[in-house]
Write a structure and sequence with these properties.
41% of the residues lie in helices and 20% in strands. The protein is an alpha/beta fold and 272 residues long. It folds into two domains: 148 residues, Periplasmic binding protein-like II (D-Maltodextrin-Binding Protein, domain 2); 103 residues, D-Maltodextrin-Binding Protein, domain 2, CATH 3.40.190.10. The chain has a five-stranded mixed beta sheet, with helices on both faces. It is globular and about 55 Å long.
């Protein structure tokens, strides 16, 4: 079992820098290694937090004696943690690029990853919307405060692609103008949501699944039409160094099952 002290230390690391977030991954791995032999460690993109927590609880109920421990962060951070020596059984990324990098690093077998869920982008604004952001074109309005995920984060990369599509339709300078309004780039999508919730930004771009029941009453959403949107495909795979390969295989199959996919759909994801 992961001790409370391990989680407490990890939370302290994760709220600081990217490098300290790497220590979080190592800490979780060490804690998992010292726990009982039926602990399954899953490194997963932060946008999967709520859905995988529910999946993990149901998986534990179906596997008495097994525990699922999650490390949620930006996919790029998780891959870096694994490359730095953190150990896990399953890696779930929000894009193919980080999974491909994990394959190149020898962490995952080339034919192992499977796309298990998809997502799309949306603009979020605080519920009071004092800045009056109601359309995509408003994002280019001078003086607006926008928060995005960093370009190296999957949702940040998807956002840049969407803005480039908008530039082709609106104005050649649209993307650069919107980016000039960015006041901060965050390490993961949950941080973007938090800043908009707190009113520290007038708008942000996140996944549609990030507008959860816990955040919906504090946010309003502006849809991004299909012509501008980007479909995010999430691959996951067991890691070569998995200590719980049998349990990991069972977890992968559970996520891909009708019951697992139903839970993911409930949390706002689309099914491949």
């Amino acid at each position: 079992m992961i001790t409370r002290n391990c989680w407490r230390q990890c939370r302290v690391f994760f709220t600081r820098s990217v490098w300290q977030a790497l220590l979080c991954g190592l800490l979780i791995s060490a804690c998992a290694a010292s726990s009982d032999a039926q602990t399954l460690t899953v490194f997963a993109a932060s946008s999967l937090t709520d859905a995988l927590k529910e999946l993990g609880a149901q998986f534990e109920a179906q596997h008495p004696g097994a525990r699922v421990v999650f490390n949620f962060a930006g996919s790029q951070q998780l891959r870096q943690q694994l490359e730095q020596g953190a150990t896990a059984d399953v890696f779930a990324s929000a894009n193919a690029r980080e999974m491909d990098a994990a394959i190149q690093s020898g962490l995952v077998t080339a034919n192992a990853p499977q796309v298990f869920v998809k997502n799309r982008l949306a603009v979020i604004v605080p519920r009071d919307n004092r800045a009056g952001v109601t359309t995509l074109s408003d994002l280019a309005r001078p003086g607006l405060k926008i928060v995005l995920a960093a370009p190296g984060v999957p949702v940040g990369s998807y956002t840049l692609n969407a803005l480039a599509k908008m530039s082709l339709a609106y104005d050649a300078t649209f993307s650069s103008t919107v980016l000039s309004n960015v006041v901060s780039y965050e390490d993961n999508v949950k941080q973007v949501v938090a800043k908009v919730q707190l009113g520290e930004a007038d708008a942000g771009i996140v996944y549609t699944s990030d507008v959860t029941p816990a955040t919906a009453n504090q946010l309003s959403t502006i849809d991004i039409p299909d012509e501008f949107n980007v479909v995010a495909a999430y691959p996951f795979a067991q890691l070569k160094a998995a200590s719980q390969s049998a349990l990991g295989a069972d977890f992968v199959q559970f996520v891909l099952s009708a019951a697992g996919q139903s839970i993911l759909k409930k949390w706002g994801f689309s099914i491949p």
